[in-house]
Amino acid sequence: MLKNLLAFNRWLFVNGAGGCVVAISVLISIEVLIRAFGGEGFVWLIDVTGLILLTFFFMVIPHSWHTDSHVRMDLIYNILPNWIRKCVDLVGLLGALVFTGAIGLRSALEVEHMFKVGVGSQTISIPHWPFAAAISIFSLLAILGAISSFFYSNGDGPEMADTEV
């Protein structure tokens, strides 16, 4: 089951986040061309790219824990003894659980309200509830990935380096 979680997080990172980057790049490129030749761009572009960027950010978090590519001061971390590294990793894990858990929980609690009230973006009213639902799911994946990476950080767990998704 853990291997499936890590494989899905990797797939989400490669395909989902990659799709977000391509979508933002294409939209901004079209906007630049339209502005260059027509003078006016899309009024809704900031709303759309902002929501895509938010989705991108939460898609990359689950995989970043397993690959150990999250933000950390490696210059100091790499010279620490192993037992202090484990303590630092535990503090980082607790911080990730609190931060990501709070965001995920709040997003999940707001989905129903956003749906009922019709909360949406300012210019073209893109509904926000699907993004809140996605953020809560990605947060759960990030929490599960962070916990699993903490317990399998020393190479005794399933490896994903050779896994094709």
State the major sheet.
Answer: none
Mean pLDDT: 85
Fraction in helix: over 70%
| Total E-strand runs | 0
Approximately what portion of the residues adopt beta-strand conformation? under 5%
Intertermini distance: 15 Å
Strand and helix layout:
Blueprint: H1 2-38, H2 45-66, H3 74-77, H4 82-117, H5 129-151
Helix pairs in contact: 1-2, 1-5, 2-5, 4-5
Structure report:
The chain has 165 residues and is mainly α. It is 74% helix and 0% strand. Helix 4 packs antiparallel against helix 5 (129-151). The two termini are 15 Å apart.
Short description:
This protein has 165 residues and is mostly helical.
Characteristic key phrases:
165 residues; mainly alpha; 5 helices; 74% helix; disordered C terminus
